[in-house]
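I have been asked to look over a protein record a colleague put together. What it holds is a sequence and that sequence's fold in token form. Please read both lines and tell me whether the tokens look consistent with the sequence. I do not need a full report, just your reasoning and any doubts. This is what I was given:
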Amino acid sequence: MRLLLDENLPRKVVRLLAPEAEAVTVEQRGWDGKTNGELLALAHDEFDAFLTMDKGIEHQQNIAELDLIVVLVRARSNAIEDIAPLVDGIKVVLTSSRPGTVVRVPEDLA
């Protein structure tokens, strides 16, 4: 599975998602500074999922029209110490979710 990590997630998450997923950051792809709409339009042709901490993304974009799973990571901060415990949950939702949906990790923080 190919994943694109938003600028608001630490780069170290890439290693934590391996080997189950091939993750690339927005910065590594050369897409830093792009809006969410631009990122999603670019990502949906090349990636299976987009990981972000941007709570507004599901209200600002029409995710249902994209061939992409959007994972909304809900943590106290974007520090690796707060994100790392959620990686197993992210891996689970990536294998059980359909493109065109927004899934939250952890799920209990809707």
In short: The two ends are 25 Å apart (CA to CA).
